Amino acid sequence: MSRDSFGSRFGALVAMAGSAVGLGNLWRFPYLVGENGGAAFIIVYIILSFLICLPIFISEFVIGRRSQKNAYAAFRDLSGGSGWRWVGLFTIIVPLVVLSYYSVIGGWSIDYLLKSCTFSFTGASGVNTMFTDLVTSTWAPLLAHTGFLLVTTLIVVVGIKDGIEKFSKVMMPLLFFIVIGIAIYSLTLEGAQKGIEYLFNPDFSKINAKACAAALGQAFFSLSLGFGTIMTYASYVDKKENIMFQSTATAVSDLMFAMIAGVAIMPAVFAFGLNPQSGPGLVFETLPLVFGQMPAGSLVAILFFLALLVAALTSSISMLEVAVAYLVEEKKFSRIAACIVLFIICWVIGAVCSLSFGPLSHIEIDGGNLFDFFDNLSSNILMTLGSLLTVLFVGWRLKKTDVYDEFTNGGTLSRNAKLFGVLWFLIRFVCPLAIIAIFVSGLIG
Ligand code: PHE
Q1: Using CB atoms within 10 A of its CB, is residue 282 exposed (0-12), middle (13-18) or buried (19+)?
Q2: Which atom of ligand 1 is the closest one to the Cα of 27?
Q3: How close is the Cα of 229 to the center of ligand 1, in Å?
Q4: Cα–Cα distance between 171 and 248 in angstroms, integer?
Q5: Distance 156 CA to ligand 1 centre (A)
Q6: Which residues line ligand 1 (CB under 6 A)?
Q7: How confident is the model at residue 178, as a pLDDT?
Q8: Number of the ligand 1 atom closest to the C-alpha atom of 22
Q9: What is the whole-number distance in angstroms between the Cα of residue 171 and the centre of ligand 1?
Q10: pLDDT at 123
């Protein structure tokens, strides 16, 4: 049976951009900017995205497209059957953990979308405690998590071209127009100016080791790195496509979405005199207060939570596909059986995360609940480790001529050929050293 693949350049591009653009852009990026002092954090983030993360992205692309296999087989075959395949297995297991708690947040977006459709944010009473009420309850978030995971699984069951690609082709343009529309509206609000200043006036005194580590972790998360996702998607990309172009286009769209999300959120938060530093609650606690006061707020709320849901779905399908590809190709599962098994595993872990705000909140690890534990562990530690191992693999285990061959399509792309020297240096030396330095100083600082 021939392997499924993306049907067009645009399809491959929107699927990759769909994986990258997600809760990381609309939920995490704005609150991290809020917590870490605005524009200076954004500048550090942009530098790290292009200097460190883009070469890692390209490394994953090379692994996936050269092997045309799932992440486990890619590491195994490209290394000639050595222990590197365990790194492949690692990059398959980690996204499952992330998908589990990601689905819980995706579920919150469903709940909030329904709430906005019933105009629940107007008439301020109850809005303040709405988020706490939701997450500490048992059934509502569990049901929403189930719904989110089910939709994710159904899209993946259909396959690459007909499921993932088609869904992304429709949803990504929709997402783009919604977020741009909200950003423009937000800029017209009285008092929006302060939000813009906050986003674009750098205060470098806020930049310390911890902020750099947070920026790097966020860039990994936002570009779906260290997880086998880009590798797996790349394995479905045609050999004629230009890796440099596809990778840069994904990184640029991801950054653009994060910035537009910032512009959609911050001016509105400032216009209504609310606090941008409310952390993870920014989108679910602060924004509903904004929507409650803003003219046409109910409509904006519906569009915003729809965007959040769509962005989350185009990312969650990419996480699930990593393990589906593995089970189908290595363990000879049918696609549907693989999806069912993975649905059950992720549902259980996700349910534990969901309940960790309510009935299971007494279980604490390192001062936080199980949800925080999984989020911290995977996005700060496991992703960093996955990304580090990936660049080391490409830079030090693969043959330079093979990487060159894949990156330049057999020497036919002359611009890529010219860039290769710089890329190779970044992959071999700059990326690994920078990852280690920033990670260690973030731990100490
Ligand atoms: N990049 C996605 C986001 O920003 C999250 C993600 C991480 C997706 C890892 C796939 C793999 O929300």
Answers
A1: buried
A2: 12
A3: 9
A4: 21
A5: 16
A6: 19-20, 22-25, 95, 98, 221-222, 224, 227, 229, 315, 318-319
A7: 96
A8: 12
A9: 16
A10: 66
| 235-271 pLDDT, tens digit each | 999 999 999 999 999 999 999 999 999 999 999 999 9
Rounded distance from Cα 128 to ligand 1 centre (Å): 29
Q: Which residue has the tokens 């569990």?
A: 142
Half-sphere exposure of residue 105, counting CA atoms within 13 Å on the CB side?
25
Q: What spacing in Å lies between the alpha carbon of 305 and ligand 1's midpoint?
A: 18
Q: Dump pLDDT digits (tens) for 296-319.
A: 999 999 999 999 999 999 999 999
Ligand 1 atom nearest residue 311's Cα: 12
For the purposes of burial, counting CB atoms within 10 Å of the CB of 395, is it exposed (0-12), middle (13-18) or buried (19 or more)? buried
pLDDT band for position 374 (cuts 50, 70, 90): confident
**Which distant-in-sequence residues (6+ apart) come within 8 Å of 252 by Cβ?**
none
How large a percentage of the chain has pLDDT more than 70?
99
Residue with CA nearest ligand 1 atom 11: 224
Nearest CA to ligand 1 atom 6: 224
| Paired tokens of 148 | 């989110």
Asked if residue 398 has pLDDT above 90, the reply is yes
| Domain residue spans of the chain | 9-444
**CATH superfamily label, 9-444:** Hydantoin permease (1.10.4160.10)
Question: In the block, which residue shows the tokens 């609150």?
Answer: 31
Atom of ligand 1 nearest to the CA of 20: 1
For residues 319 and 229, what is the distance between their CA atoms, to the nearest angstrom? 6
| CA 422/CA 76 separation, integer angstroms | 27
Q: DSSP class of residue 427?
A: I
- Who contacts 74 (Cβ-Cβ below 8 Å, separation ≥6)? 63, 64, 66, 67, 88, 231, 235
198 has a pLDDT exceeding 70: yes
Q: Rounded to whole angstroms, how far apart are CA atoms 2 and 17?
A: 25
What does the DSSP assignment read for 94-149?
HHHHHHHHHHHHHHHHHHHHHHHHTTTTSSSTTHHHHHHHHHHSSHHHHHHHHHHH
Testing ligand 1's pocket by substitution, the residue of 56, 229, 380 carrying the most ligand atoms inside 8 A of its CB is 229
Instruction: Using the atom order of ligand 1, give the atom closest to the CA of residue 23.
Output: 12
Q: How far is the CA of 246 from the centre of ligand 1 (A)?
A: 17
pLDDT band at 281, cuts 50/70/90?
A: confident
Ligand 1 center from residue 21 Cα (angstroms): 7
Q: What pLDDT band is residue 125 in, cutting at 50, 70 and 90?
A: low
pTM: 0.95
Note the Cα 338 to chain centre separation in Å: 23
Cα 91 to averaged position of ligand 1 atoms, centre (Å) = 13
